[in-house]
């Protein structure tokens, strides 16, 4: 499994951002190998972390080829003050007690 952590400092969102963001989420959900996402908001700042769960690197690369996703990446300065993407391969995951909130989300 792979995790893609999208860390962002939001700027100003307009209607076009929301439309494109919704289209990108649909594209992710329709990509074979997409497992879900989780979003966290830092309590002390505007920073947001979105973690996307992918079954394989091939699935992630397939999503990366989406035209809406590519277009949004080119326009990031219009909507974000800053961003960072980290791709991580999960070697092991374990735990107990989260029930329906266990990762990866479904």
Outline the secondary-structure elements.
Blueprint lengths: L1 E9 L4 H16 L3 E8 L6 E7 L2 H8 L2 H8 L5 E10 L17
Antiparallel strand pairs: 1-3, 1-4, 2-3
Describe this entry's structure for a reader.
This protein is α+β, with helices and mostly antiparallel strands and 106 residues long. It has a single domain (2-91), classed as Alpha-Beta Plaits (2-Layer Sandwich), CATH 3.30.70. 30% of the residues lie in helices and 32% in strands. It is built from three helices and four strands. It has helices at 15-30, 57-64, 67-74; strands at 2-10, 34-41, 48-54, 80-89. A four-stranded antiparallel β-sheet has the order 2-3-1-4. A hairpin with a 6-residue loop joins strand 2 and strand 3. The protein is globular and about 40 Å long. The two termini are 14 Å apart. The model has no long low-confidence stretch (mean pLDDT 89). Pfam families: Monooxy_af470-like (PF13826). InterPro entries: Dimeric_a/b-barrel, Monooxy_af470.
Indicate the structural class.
alpha+beta
Q: Largest sheet at a glance? A: 4 strands, antiparallel
Radius of gyration: 14 Å
Shape: globular
- The N- and C-terminal alpha carbons lie at a distance of 14 Å
Counting DSSP E segments of at least 2 residues, the number of strands comes to 4
Put simply, the count of helices is 3
| Portion in helices | 25-40%
Protein name: Heme-degrading monooxygenase HmoA
Pfam family, one: Monooxy_af470-like
Organism: Haloarchaeobius iranensis
